[in-house]
Amino acid sequence: MCSATNGGFVPNFGDFQLEIYFGGLGGVLPTMPMTYSELEERAKYALPPGIWSYVAGGAGDELTQRVNVTAFEKYGLIPRMLRASKERDLSIELFGMTLPSPIFMSPVGVIGLCSQDGHGDIATAKAAARTGVPMVMSTLTVDPMEDVAAHFGNTPGMFQLYTPTNKDVAQSFVSRAEASGFKAIVVTLDTWVPGWRPRDLSTSNFPQLRGHCLANYFSDPVFRGLLAKSPEDDPKTAILTWISMFGNSLTWDDLDWLRSLTKLPIVLKGICHPEDARRAKDAGVDGIYCSNHGGRQANGGIAAIDHLSDVVEAVDGLPVLFDSGIRNGSDIVKALALGATAVGIGRPYAYGLALGGVDGLVHVLRSLLAEADLLMAVDGYPTIADLNPEAIRRG
Ligand SMILES: Cc1cc2nc3c(=O)[nH]c(=O)nc-3n(C[C@H](O)[C@H](O)[C@H](O)COP(=O)(O)O)c2cc1C
Ligand SMILES: CC(C)CC(=O)C(=O)O
Where is the active site (predicted)? Predict the structure, then answer.
C-alpha cells in the first residue's frame, strides 16, 4: 500500500519504505542514476568489457532490441481527474501468492558475474528479500540453486528451466527447485539454440561466460553421474557435456512430460503468437510469459509490447507475465494496462547490481516502482485493477 500525504508519498513495498518529496527522493540512493540512460552509461564502465557487451548486446543489428524500447512511446495512459487517491495499492495476485508489487526480476544467466564479488545470483536473491520483488532464477548460475534460494527471505522465487535434452537431468533440476522452495517453473522456449549475436561472435564471449555459470549442472548428482571425472577434475569435458545437452528443441508433444515433472505452476516463456498462447492454455499450463528475450534471440521481429494485448486476449484470464524493453516506471504501468499480470525487469537490474551491488539493485527496483506509483497517483489509477485497456491509448 502507498499513501500520499501533504506533498510526501510513502510507498511501502514489502519490507521497505520509500519517501518521495517534491524536490527530492528519500530512500533512493543519491549516488545512483535516476534515469535509465545514465544507468546504462555508467554500467558500461563498471562492468568488464566482455560482460558488458554480452549483457548489452542482442541479435543481429539489434533492431528488435531497440524497438522493444521505443515501441512504448506509442502508448500512453489517459489521465483521469477528480479521483486522486492518497492510498494506492500496487499489490498483485500470482499463482495464489500475494506480491507487494507487480514486477519481478527476469532470468539473467550471467547475473552471477555482474557483481564485483562474482556471486550476483546470491546478491539478486538478497535484493528480492529486501524488496519483495521475486527473482526468476536462471538455470545458468554461478552458485547452485539451493544456495541462491537460501537468500530469498519471505519473497517467493521462480526457477527458469533451460530444459536439458537429458530428461533425467531435467527432472533432477525441477525436483531440486521444488525442494529448494521455488514457487513456479518458467520454461524458456525461445533459446534452444543461441541467436546470431555479433557482439559475442566477435569476442568469443559465449562459451567463456557460460562456462562460469554452470553451477546447477556441476552440483547436480545426475549430471555428475554422467561424467567419468568430476567437473572439478575435468572442467573441459563437463562443459562439453553441458553443451551437448543444452539445445532441447521442445515441441508441443513435450508439454505432458514437462507437466509430469512437477506440481508447481508451469509458465512458458517466449510466447508471442496468440495461437501459441491459446494452445498452451488448452494444454494446461498455468501461465504465459510474453517476451522476445530482450531482442537477444530473433532479430527483425516487432516489439514485444506490440504482441501483449493479443496474447492476453487469447488466454482469457490466464496469468500473463511480460518482459522485453521495460526501462522506466511508465513502461511498467503501460504493460499492466495492456493486460500483463506481472512485468519483468531485465537489463536494468543487471546494471544496478553492477554499479552498486545489492544496494544498487534495490535502488533500481525502488526507483522503477516509485516512478510507476507516482504515475498512477498523478493520472488517477490507484490500483493495478484500474489499469485496464480503457486506461491506455495508442497515439
Ligand atoms: C545478459 C542476459 C542473460 C539472459 N539470460 C537469460 C536466461 O538465462 N534465461 C532466460 O529465460 N532469459 C534470459 N535472458 C532474457 C531475460 O529474461 C529477458 O527476457 C530480457 O532481458 C528482457 O529484455 P530487456 O532486458 O531488454 O528488458 C537474459 C537476458 C540478458 C540481458
Ligand atoms: C543463450 C543462453 C545460454 C543465455 C541467455 O538466455 C541469454 O544470454 O540471453
Answer: 293
